[in-house]
Amino acid sequence: MSLVNVGAPVIYWFRSDMRLQDNPAWTRACAMGRPVIAVTFAPVLSAREVAWGIPGLSPSRKAWWAATVQELRRELDALGVSLLVLRGGAMEDLVRLCETSGAVALVCEEIAAPYEEAQLSSLRASGMVVHSVWQSTLFKAEDLPFSVTNLPGVFTRFRNEVERAKVPFRTPLPAPVNVSGYDLTSDTVTFVEDFADGEDASKFVADSRSAFQWRSGSFDANDEVLHLDEVRAGSAGGHAYLRSYLESSRVAQYKATRNGLTGMAYSSKWSPWLALGAVSAPEMMAALKAHERNHGATDGSYWLWFELLWRDYFRWLHLQYGVGLYRPKGLLEAPMSERVPHHRRSFTLWTEGRTGCDLVDAGMRELACSGYLSNRMRQVVASFLIYELGCDWRAGAAWFESQLLDFDVYSNQGNWLYIAGLGTDPRGGRRFNIAKQTADHDPDGAYRALWSTGS
Ligand SMILES: Cc1cc2nc3c(=O)[nH]c(=O)nc-3n(C[C@H](O)[C@H](O)[C@H](O)COP(=O)(O)OP(=O)(O)OC[C@H]3O[C@@H](n4cnc5c(N)ncnc54)[C@H](O)[C@@H]3O)c2cc1C
Questions:
Q1: Where is the Photolyase/cryptochrome alpha/beta domain (predicted)?
Q2: 215-219 contacts: CB < 8 A, separation 24 or more?
Q3: Which of 56, 104, 116, 426 lies at a C-alpha separation of 20 to 30 Å from 447?
């Protein structure tokens, strides 16, 4: 006969899903009817970045993360659950936490990227029971008109098939209400450090030139409308922004403006909340559909759906190809020994915004100073690194990972691979003509002037 400790807790690890509502993994943990220990890890350099000697994470990335965690912590506190912030990405700390608390299992979001999967494998290898839940896509795998191991090779076919089959996006879930916290003994928490010292978001001030203007502090629910040009981290801030954005004329204009370079208005700026999961993609879609019912569909509202499909596509690609997307030659049939050229010095100059190409240098300064970059400039600087400087695309992806406040492993790897021409698209890579990009997108030099200096 086995003895079951009914008071034993379950550990919930918040990864890129920093929200309580529409979080199937969190809902599953709460449904176990056990007290919950909530943990997260402060971001540190991943193995992908360490491999390229990247010195550290940008202040913007750390601050947006800290501001998001502060909001999550506030929401959990209201439920009587404290959030432990562990440092260093060390899985041993989770194992220790499990052993000292007698936790029956750990529940978390599944992330289908090699480094993130290795984290769960090491927990399982230590004997921990780990339940991971695939949940960051718009759709459920079983609703797709093809199996995830047989994905259409190009995005347009993926989109056409999804649209033809009218695949429903996952219905957002409410936040669970029956949740209780677990009292940790002081022995258990001695190895837990708080993030408040190093990455205090309240001291962070966004660069006034940044295309993503945010402020620390909670969204005040008494404010009916969030100021669209100055936003807040966390679920409440994200939902307030989403509501205000969808009430504005920006949606209808999105298709025409989305290739802009400066200011908050040219694109949706949904990615910072999506990346940390403060708002889920199905929640964004539900709000977008409600907007279309109330105000009518436009080219802009359709194009936002189109872009969210790109986000999904890179996620499904990861499920299909996994580690293949991280090889030097990506999915190309090439011997593993075949090297991708890389020039360390050129890479460093690129990261510092000192390549001598005005447009690229402006983009790299914007990235370093603000943690954000328009989609157009992400494409331009990525193409320049790969095709003009002859550097390894994976180094560029790692630099973006360290800098972007909206870093998302799937979208980042997928887009870099796409520009390098090493993914599924048979048309090869995307080499951008810099003179043409400059003439088309910065004809008067306003963008280059804005970012002619660093901070
Ligand atoms: C080299 C490169 C690296 C990138 N790295 C990231 C990353 O780490 N994190 C990230 O979120 N996006 C990444 N992107 C995709 C895209 O640039 C950003 O999602 C977008 O610029 C975010 O701003 P927005 O929310 O205003 O986008 P909008 O143009 O308003 O689009 C709405 C949403 O659609 C999705 N989306 C739009 N374009 C893409 C795309 N090309 N691929 C996948 N999803 C897309 C995003 O979720 C975005 O929030 C990268 C693109 C390139 C070219």
A1: 8-138
A2: 216/63, 216/67, 216/70, 218/71, 218/74
A3: 56
